[in-house]
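Each record in this resource describes a single protein on a pair of labelled lines. The shape at a given residue is found from the number at the same position. The record below illustrates this layout:

***
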Amino acid sequence: MVENRNELSSFLCCCLQNNFPFFAYQLPKSGMIQIGVQTDLDLKDYHSLSELDEQNGFVFSPFDIESCHKSWFIRSDINLAATEIDSGSIQLLRSADIKMDEAYPLGRIFESPHELYFDQVTKMINDLKQFKLEKAILSRIQMLDGMGMNCAVDSFLKLSESYDSAFVFLVSIPKVGTWIGASPETLLSSKNNAIETVALAGTQKLAGRIVDQIKWEQKEVYEQALVSSYVEKVLENHNVSDYHRTGPVTAQAGNVVHLKTTYMLPNGMNFHQLSNLVQDLHPTPAVCGLPKSKAMDLIREIERHDREYYAGYLGPIESNGSISLFVNLRSMKVLENQMALFVGGGITADSIPEKEWEETCLKAQTLLNVIRS
């Protein structure tokens, strides 16, 4: 726990209450919260990450880049580590004094009940068999009543204290939305002369077991192999062959475990090359399916809700070319008096609807166990 938790909480609450575009995050295994605040509402949207070369800030991109939702870049006009925040930091915020032209609605999101989810899984399984898709991801929404903007900062801080191995984040963009999460999945990271991406799939409850002794069913191994194969194909298309592969291994993420393969890429890729790699990796089969275009069409047809930024990507970028991008998983959109918790799972032709529902409930507990404590 950070020693100046009260000052940090007050600073982040001030950002929210005064409509600053801002971000706060904790990188895996870092134990340090970093915060960036943009001191005006001149927000930049982008189509390709390469447009942001030599910029310092934070990117926030949707799941479906062809949807009405834009990819956004938040500048870090004020850039602070959590340990640097004191009463003077809040005065610095108040001196910026952003003025919104008008109040904006936070919108409404509707829950996905068990019956609807069951029908959607059944239809998706039938379509997978008919159209010979290998895998598609179905998501649903669980609404948390009585928890909204007033709980956002406390929920973020609880997650940062509980999940040291995840990318924990709070990001808020006026007229776009406020999101909180603890993602277990790296999309692409390039920092300190190391480039990394991962293939993550398969889910089990940890249930007090020893991680290294967990056994996996064939369906889960197959799902993970599909994601790994996709990542390797993308690397091949970018003429990257001399990478180092580790896994698949069992990796813990809160109360669940996943199968994870890590790819360490040769150093020397510039920001433009990394941007192109991100463009081809996203969305990965772990959040979309395979073949990707057909799986996307199926998701658009079957899911009745808008994923918005769930299963998109987000993270900090630096002017020196470093990026730390993660898939927006285990996350919630914050509304006025509610939070919309998004969860999903991989569906194959052999899926059993009730087991898929149970998997989404298990994933939801990753956040619920912490924020409701």
About this structure: The longest strand covers residues 194-205. The CA atoms of residues 138 and 216 lie 21 Å apart.
